[in-house]
Write a structure and sequence with these properties.
A hairpin with a 2-residue loop joins strand 30 and strand 31. The chain has 576 residues and is mainly beta.
């Protein structure tokens, strides 16, 4: 049964246009003791890839991890963030543990990196469960693909050889376990937003027509045109508010009669505050600062500059080219200038739209003024954002000690795509010779390697129990639920009752199983081999069980006595 719908949650948000993306830089330092290096005061915010001076007596900072050794058993990391608004780098963070050398011959720890994706770099994912080897269902070991404005985030932690989270009790509580989330990918800035503008449309009709509905301001349709011809009759006007970025109509304005009978100019006023709001009739008009304001029955509408009795009007012409500074050639005294049209040319003629206008005689259709200096109507394109800086992780199968991908070497570690290593996490199958997953990682900027591939490390696998004498202790964990974690740690494993088929199953694979992370399959429908069915098995769940003469594990119990089925009779012979 489906649960109730949750309350509305924000899914997406319009970003800030033309803004640089935020990037990060990391530096590393090794120490002999577990105490972290001193905080960095030499930040130099104006220099990219800046390596600060280290504190006296400490090892130098580097822009790549050097790796721990028996002498330098601790390696620390500090990061700083680039601010796209100020175009400066922020201060380096307090050093955090990056790697630690294993003690007393014990298998070394590895860094586990997990990823998630959000709708943008300004949408930070929720914090991980820092002290749990499973930080939460939104985090996965495979790096997702980001498209558009989406951003990829990462967390990392030290994991022991037996798949347990390393917790350093010497660190402050908030710095233990999983570190992050930190932004891995940058988000390019959007194109700059163009200015909105207005376009007039006219229609000849004896009665008031409906306003245009077209989304193209230069093809209003249904008898509407951008420039009225010289025919007699009643003309109506509607003005479109046009989105500068998309060149589509946001809204068509009210339809106003601009010729013929019906407009009565009542006089001249100083400002729109003086327009009367009562006692008006449709068509009443006032001239304010050279513009004609007409009452449409509900409100006053600015219909443009006043046209005299001679019918003179303003005509607009348009042209495109590829320049933001030099307009297309224009003969200002030509009634129909070459290369300029009364409608906007198609975008293929050039990305920059230019416009000019002139006053046309309503008597003989001649120029009363030269064409005005052209001005462009297309906004400039915003600058590209700073490219994101991220880590790329590749995987292959292997055993506990070897791997199947190309062997790490001085030549392999600088290959962009080493043979046998993939961005996809391989699926492990019980019984397969290769039951471990190995990984390598490096830093990538603009699809170019900034660091070499790290040495391959195992990140986990299928642990196959010893078939004789080392099976885990199986214990009941009730009715199966997709939201309950079930853990087989090699020593003990849960069994559950699956209501979908009425049978009992136990978690055979050494792992943590959460149904919501496994496509919501149940033990009965699982095809990975993680669960095993308990044949001919019935379970009794009770706090107290009273069963006189019960046979349990090869022994009969009665009151305080236990009789073994493997005992001796009175003749000192085997009883069974």
């Amino acid at each position: 049964m489906w649960s109730d719908w949750q309350g509305p949650t924000i899914w997406s948000k319009w970003g800030v246009n033309g803004k640089d993306g935020d990037g990060r830089e990391y530096i590393f330092q090794r120490t002999k003791l577990p105490a972290p290096p001193h905080n960095i005061t030499d930040n130099n915010p104006d220099v990219d890839e800046y390596i600060p001076s280290s504190y006296p007596g400490e090892e130098p900072w580097t822009d790549d991890p050097s790796g721990v050794s028996q002498t330098y058993q601790y390696e620390w990391v500090s990061q700083r963030k680039y601010d796209g608004n100020t175009h400066k780098w922020g201060n380096f963070s307090s050093p955090a543990l990056w790697a630690k050398y294993g003690d007393n011959g014990q298998d070394g720890m590895s860094i586990r990196v997990m990823y998630t994706r959000t709708s943008g770099s300004d949408v930070k994912p929720r914090d991980p469960d820092r002290l749990n080897i499973n930080p939460g269902s939104i985090w996965g070991v495979g790096m997702p693909t980001a498209t558009g404005k989406q951003a990829i985030w990462g967390i990392q932690a030290l994991v022991t050889y037996d798949n347990k989270l390393y917790i350093d009790e010497n660190l402050p509580e908030e710095e233990r376990g999983w570190q992050g989330p930190y932004l891995i990918t940058g988000v390019p800035g959007l194109d700059g937003n163009n200015f909105n503008y207005q376009v007039d449309a006219f229609k000849q009709a004896t009665t008031k027509p409906d306003k245009p509905t077209s989304s193209d301001p230069y093809a209003p349709g249904n008898g509407w045109v951008n420039v009225p011809d010289m025919s007699t009759g009643t003309w109506w006007k509607s003005t479109a508010l046009v989105q500068g970025e998309t060149a589509t109509v946001i809204e068509w304005g009210a339809v106003i009669k601009v010729t013929g009978q019906g407009i009565v100019i009542k006089g001249t006023l100083e400002s729109t505050d003086d327009l009367p709001m009562t006692g008006n009739e449709i068509g009443d008009a006032y001239v304010i600062d050279g513009y004609l304001w007409v009452w449409n029955g509900e409100t006053w509408v600015n219909v443009g500059t006043v046209q005299g009795a001679d019918g003179n009007y303003t005509e607009y012409r348009f042209a495109r080219n590829n320049s933001w500074s030099t307009p297309p050639s224009l003969n200002k005294s030509d009634r129909y200038p070459t290369g300029w049209s009364s409608t906007a040319p198609v975008l293929s003629d050039g990305p920059v739209l230019w416009a000019t206008f002139a006053t046309i005689s309503g008597v003989d259709n001649t120029l009363l003024t030269d064409w005005a200096d052209p001005y462009y109507m297309t906004g400039s394109t915003g600058a590209s954002g700073i490219p994101g800086v991220g880590y790329e992780v590749k995987y292959c199968k292997g055993t506990e000690t070897t791997y199947t991908g190309e062997q790490w070497s001085d030549s392999m570690k600088w290959k962009r795509n080493p043979t046998g290593w993939s961005l996809d996490v391989p699926e492990l199958v019980n019984g397969d010779e290769y039951n471990y997953i190995w990984f390598i990682q490096c830093r990538i900027i603009n699809d170019t390697m900034e660091t070499a591939w790290s040495k391959p490390n195992p990140m986990g696998g299928i642990i196959v129990p010893d078939p004789v004498g080392s099976q885990p202790i199986i214990y009941p964990q009730g009715i199966y639920s997709t939201t309950t974690p079930y853990i087989n740690d090699g020593e003990k494993a849960p069994y559950v009752y699956d209501t979908s088929d009425g049978d009992f199953y136990y978690l055979k694979s050494v792992m943590t199983w959460i149904g919501t992370q496994q496509n919501n399959v149940s033990p009965a429908t699982d095809t990975s081999g993680a669960w095993a069915k308990l044949e001919n098995y019935e379970a009794v769940f009770a706090n107290v069980l009273i069963t006189p003469n019960a046979l349990v594990g090869g022994a009969v119990f009665n009151n305080n006595l236990m009789f073994s089925q493997r005992g001796k009779n009175a003749s000192n012979e085997n009883s069974s």
